[in-house]
């Protein structure tokens, strides 16, 4: 598989899960695209953490993305660490773990790999591609690169390019990982170590950006830990400190540090307008894809203005687009949470378009 | 000197600078309080960095805080690393560098040390106490603890308590420092090392919070470094990455990592309402201090709502307070930058109140 960086990769493995049944016309398939730290376990118990799937709030039998009606596919992205080809895998040319010898991949490369999977599954055209955050970037890339292979697109809490502030937060995370002496310039596997401290700091920083200030305030405020008094030291006195430390320490059990470098880099590079002569609308010229663009009012990582820019660009070339901002104080993370209005909009859109696409109710 | 944590400290040293002349009535003294990474070098060439003083935009002859009219005092805070007693100094009990054996200090402790300095200088009552960010916390603490020792107070871009989000960002910075093996549980001086990588990551994270998203966008956008093309690697491709790395690497030359831990902790603990039975207004009951509260519209670290809460609390006990939000897209850092409206308001307030205080023009 040729990559945007000029190198190529192969053979590649893509780990994926499916839910529901593909209908006889092969017309009811929805590709779910996961976010930075997500994976293919959209539903069901996660094999590493033992926790429920990351999108159980939205996806499942009778849910907004109804597995009784649609056939769902969710694959671990290229560069990921849950079974797909990535920096933690083996470089066939050397027989050693790739580490930072792995080529830098882009969102477009991830989509190319997903398209190969869809070919492999014998599906000519997806009914929909749906995803939030970096998953939404993949949705937009699908619509731009392969408009004839999807009927509908649902980009959620995302943007057509990564902002300077978001690049800055990613860079801090990468620096935290690379500053960890256990990182060993990416060759930690060979040293029998893992840069868990650096990766935890990266996760903690990122996690702050996933929540709104109001969400942090409502969840923790300035409440102290159980002992109820200041320690006058550097232990976790405040509940919010303890929460962040927990987020950091549990994350490192399930995620590969090099994968974190590669995937954040792919997001930083994402700029759909730049790939189309600087005009975002040109990414969607002539497209017949039906779009449902969704943002969350308190999301400061991917603010509503970014989604509005996407919706306007599609409208500017007479595309078929609806745009909704969901009122919530839960920040970027809202797309993963139980947000009834959000779920209703996704369900309404998909079921409405499914009628046009000739997908029977089961 | 007794401390809030229950321990005591002494003898203490406070490094300070003065500018202008104290008048015969000793009535024209202004205490300038510095922010987290500031110091006493408010004006003039910094002895370590060789750069101009940190508040040259606002302070100086003929400037908003006019050294021709006022006598300025700026001291390095207790716990700092520019000459005042702090964790990089020597514990007299052991003859060793304090490190994390230094007691945790609070904003109120910093103010107690400043008051001892003011005593030492033979000044009974300050004309004003002025400061931004953590400096503004000290201003509020002065007004609450020692209302009879100041005539006017100018808390800028600050809050009466540190928010959950701000605690979270500080905690990430501390974790980055403490994750650095060169930190050696705070005893790095004895190991001949310094946790520069961890401190740089802490600074980088904090620096993002000092700028608005718009400021980062205007300054850097998605512009690439000189070579103008993606490296498809993990070097600093984007200008914003290079800028942040520079901020991190220059900071470590002038700042002590343990000081960073202590000062961020002091900010986290700051909660003026909690110290007054949970009612912020009670911190200002009966106060005759004249307040000028100032915030900046794009400051998301200390948003306008925090300043408004301070102004309302003062007004609720019939205090003398004006409150202004300055329109700017430069974020929290605006208080350090050339902002003409901001400077005019500070000048107008100080010069107006100086008339009431009987301070002659020189």
Automatic annotation (TrEMBL), chains A, B:
Keywords: Acyltransferase, Amino-acid biosynthesis, Cytoplasm, Methionine biosynthesis, Transferase. Transfers an acetyl group from acetyl-CoA to L-homoserine, forming acetyl-L-homoserine. Residues 28-337 form the AB hydrolase-1 domain. It comes from Tistrella mobilis (strain KA081020-065). Its EC number is 2.3.1.31. GO terms for cellular component: cytoplasm. Substrate binds at residues 203, 333. It comes from the Bacteria. InterPro entries: AB_hydrolase_1, AB_hydrolase_fold, HAT_MetX-like. This is Homoserine O-acetyltransferase. Belongs to the AB hydrolase superfamily. MetX family.
């Amino acid at each position: 598989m040729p990559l945007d960086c000029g190198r190529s990769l192969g053979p590649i493995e893509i780990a994926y899960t499916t839910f529901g049944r593909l209908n006889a016309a092969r017309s009811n398939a929805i590709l779910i695209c996961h976010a930075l730290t997500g994976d293919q376990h959209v539903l069901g118990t996660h094999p590493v953490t033992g926790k429920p799937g990351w999108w159980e709030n939205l996806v499942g039998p009778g849910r907004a993305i109804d597995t009784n009606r649609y056939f769902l596919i969710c694959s671990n992205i290229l560069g990921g660490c849950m079974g797909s080809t990535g920096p933690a895998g083996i470089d066939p040319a050397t027989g050693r773990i790739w580490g930072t010898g792995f080529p830098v991949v882009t969102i477009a490369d991830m989509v190319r790999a997903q398209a190969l999977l869809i070919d492999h599954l014998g599906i000519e055209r997806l009914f929909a591609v749906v995803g939030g955050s970096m998953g939404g970037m993949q949705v937009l890339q699908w619509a731009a690169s392969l408009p004839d292979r999807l009927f509908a697109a649902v980009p959620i809490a995302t943007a057509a390019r990564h902002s300077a502030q978001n690049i800055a937060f990613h860079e801090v995370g990468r620096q935290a990982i690379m500053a960890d002496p256990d990182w060993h310039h990416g060759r930690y596997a060979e040293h029998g170590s893992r840069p868990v401290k650096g990766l935890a700091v990266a996760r903690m920083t990122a996690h702050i950006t996933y929540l709104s200030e109001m969400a942090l305030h409502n969840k923790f405020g300035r409440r102290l830990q159980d002992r109820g008094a200041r320690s006058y030291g550097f232990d976790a006195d405040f509940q919010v400190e303890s929460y962040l430390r927990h987020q950091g320490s549990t994350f490192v059990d399930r995620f590969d540090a090099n994968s974190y470098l590669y995937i954040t880099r792919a997001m930083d590079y994402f700029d759909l307008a730049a790939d189309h002569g600087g005009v975002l609308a040109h990414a969607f010229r002539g497209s017949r894809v039906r779009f449902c663009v969704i943002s969350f009012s308190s999301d400061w990582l991917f603010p509503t203005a970014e989604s509005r820019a996407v919706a306007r660009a599609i409208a500017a070339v007479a595309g078929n687009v609806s745009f909704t901002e969901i009122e919530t104080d839960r920040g970027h993370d809202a797309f993963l949470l139980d947000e009834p209005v959000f779920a209703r909009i996704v369900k309404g859109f998909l079921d409405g378009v499914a009628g046009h696409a000739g997908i029977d109710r089961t």
